[in-house]
Every structure is written in structure tokens, then in C-alpha cells.
């Protein structure tokens, strides 16, 4: 990324587009161990952008599946004991095979099970990227002993966030350093940090939170970018840039949440370089 003026980062004209082009050419296989609510959504989004989704969670086949996969998505949205064990096993195998992992700690902070599972997966899978909403990131940071701002409430409202990304940016930086991972916080503005650098991605649409699973979709797009972009930080920024662009394009054509999802897939499919330059602002923070 090139700094064009103080405080503002313009994603290199060719950088995010090169990543999308590389993804479409490589069609990376992205293994998703994800929740029942979003399997169809995330598979369609990956296909629309140009990646190849794989939905599998049986422990007996994970070694084989990760041998042929270029990225692993772990999403804890609908937890059960067998799925937790599969996620842990997949994370360990991916770490051994050097397959990049993105973790979505859905609902961390809402229950001890979700918070502890997220912490266990950070430990065993060594995710390259952790992507969640503000409340989830704050809950994980608090669980790891990273001090929250005075008076902050770490309670998660189900899987939805009561906190904007920028409200938790210092905790996100602390979590990134502690977990040795890039942390991506989604919201009206997205925030990506590796503990040192921080970038805001500004775009998308206010309609996006009205469609279930778009946060999980963002996680899968991060996974796809991890398969073709060497830097996890750049992969996360590029994925959120693509997500925000497609959301803005879809909203311009949609009558409401139902048609937003329809047009969102079309936007991912038709996305070109001019689209990426026109809808989103990326700033250092």
C-alpha cells in the first residue's frame, strides 16, 4: 500500500486487483469448518469471487482434505463437542502442513464454551488472521488478560456486536500481539491490525448487518485471500476491501436485505478494477 497523504492509505491500484486476479486464476480450495446457518452463503460467495469452497468436518478425512486445501476457515457459530474436536484437529494439521488459518470466534463472550473454544483454537491452530466483530474481539482480549478501557462492557449480544470496530482498536492491537496474528474487526468501518500497523476500511452499506452470515462470509473471503497473498495483513485488508466494495455495489441495486444478498453474489462475480477503486476508502490509523 502506498501512502498518498498524511493519514490516508490508497490501496495500490494494482494490489487488491492483482490479488483478485490471482485468486480467480488459481481458484484456491478453501476448506471451511463452519456453521449450519452460513454454509450455503459462504460457499456461494467463494464461488462467485472465483475460489473453490470445500465444506467438510469429519475428523477421519481432515488430513486428506488439508493436503489439497490452500486455506482453512474455522467458524464456531454452531458449536457441538464433535465439531470442536474436528476444528482442533484441523487446526493442528493445518499448522503442521503450513496451511494458513482464519478463525471466526462467533459469539465469543456470550458463553464460556465459545470463549474457551476460541482460545483453544488460537493455541492449537495458530491462526494467521482472527476476524470478528467488536464485541467478540473485546471478549477474547479480556479473556487473555488484555485490559479493556475503563467502563467498557465485554458482553456479547448473541453473535451481534454492540461495539464499533474503532471502539476496540487498542484491544485489537493487543490481541494481535498476544495471539501473534492479524486481527480484523468488522463493523460500519472495518479495522485491520497486526499489533503494529492499523488500517481502516471504510465502505459497504448499512443494509449489510440485516443479512445473516455476511460477517462469516467476510471470514471466508479472508481465507481465500490468504491462499494467494503472502502477507496475512494484506490478505485481510484486501478481503475487507472486496467485501465492502461488493456490499456497496449490491446496496445500490437492492430494494432491501433479501435482494442485497442476491446482488452481493453478482457483485463479487462481476467485480473489476474500476469497482475496487470507486467504492472504498482505506486509511492508516
UniProtKB/TrEMBL annotation:
Single biological process term from Gene Ontology: thiamine diphosphate biosynthetic process
Record Gene3D superfamilies: 3.40.1190.20
InterPro entries on file: Hyethyz_kinase, Ribokinase-like
Pfam families named among the record's database cross-references: HK
Residues the record lists as binding substrate: 55, 213
Cofactor requirements of the protein: Mg(2+)
Pathway named in the protein's UniProt entry: Cofactor biosynthesis; thiamine diphosphate biosynthesis; 4-methyl-5-(2-phosphoethyl)-thiazole from 5-(2-hydroxyethyl)-4-methylthiazole: step 1/1
Entry keyword set: ATP-binding, Kinase, Magnesium, Metal-binding, Nucleotide-binding, Thiamine biosynthesis, Transferase
Single GO term (MF): magnesium ion binding
Chemical reaction(s) catalysed: 5-(2-hydroxyethyl)-4-methylthiazole + ATP = 4-methyl-5-(2-phosphooxyethyl)-thiazole + ADP + H(+)
Listed EC numbers: 2.7.1.50
UniProt xrefs under SUPFAM superfamilies: Ribokinase-like
Sites where the protein binds ATP: 131, 186
Enzyme class: transferase
Family: Belongs to the Thz kinase family.
Function: Catalyzes the phosphorylation of the hydroxyl group of 4-methyl-5-beta-hydroxyethylthiazole (THZ).
UniProt name for this protein: Hydroxyethylthiazole kinase
Species: Desulfobaculum bizertense DSM 18034
Amino acid at each position: 500500500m502506498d501512502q498518498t497523504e498524511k493519514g490516508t492509505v490508497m490501496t495500490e491500484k494494482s494490489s487488491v486487483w492483482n490479488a483478485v486476479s490471482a485468486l480467480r486464476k488459481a481458484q484456491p480450495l478453501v476448506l471451511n469448518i463452519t456453521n449450519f446457518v452460513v454454509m450455503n452463503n459462504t460457499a456461494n460467495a467463494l464461488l462467485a469471487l472465483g475460489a473453490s469452497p470445500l465444506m467438510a468436518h469429519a475428523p477421519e478425512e481432515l488430513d486428506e482434505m488439508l493436503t489439497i486445501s490452500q486455506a482453512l476457515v474455522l467458524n464456531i457459530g454452531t458449536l457441538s463437542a464433535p465439531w470442536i474436536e474436528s476444528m482442533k484437529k484441523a487446526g493442528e494439521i493445518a499448522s503442521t502442513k503450513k496451511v494458513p488459518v482464519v478463525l471466526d470466534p462467533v459469539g465469543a463472550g456470550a458463553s464460556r464454551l465459545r470463549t474457551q473454544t476460541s482460545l483453544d483454537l488460537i493455541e492449537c491452530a495458530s491462526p494467521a488472521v482472527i476476524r470478528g466483530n467488536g464485541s467478540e474481539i473485546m471478549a477474547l482480549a479480556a479473556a487473555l488478560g488484555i485490559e479493556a478501557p475503563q467502563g467498557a462492557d465485554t458482553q456479547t449480544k448473541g453473535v451481534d456486536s454492540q461495539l464499533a470496530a474503532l471502539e476496540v482498536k487498542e484491544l485489537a492491537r493487543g490481541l494481535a500481539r498476544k495471539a501473534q496474528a492479524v486481527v480484523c474487526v468488522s463493523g460500519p468501518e472495518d479495522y485491520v491490525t497486526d499489533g503494529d500497523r492499523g488500517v481502516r476500511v471504510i465502505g459497504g452499506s448499512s443494509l449489510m448487518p440485516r443479512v445473516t452470515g455476511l460477517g462469516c462470509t467476510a471470514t471466508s473471503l479472508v481465507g481465500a485471500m490468504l491462499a494467494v497473498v503472502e502477507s496475512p495483513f494484506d490478505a485481510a485488508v484486501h478481503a475487507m476491501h472486496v467485501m465492502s466494495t461488493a456490499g456497496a455495489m449490491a446496496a445500490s441495486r437492492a430494494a432491501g436485505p433479501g435482494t442485497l444478498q442476491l446482488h452481493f453474489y453478482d457483485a463479487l462475480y462481476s467485480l473489476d478494477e474500476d469497482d475496487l477503486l470507486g467504492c472504498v476508502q482505506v486509511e492508516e490509523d
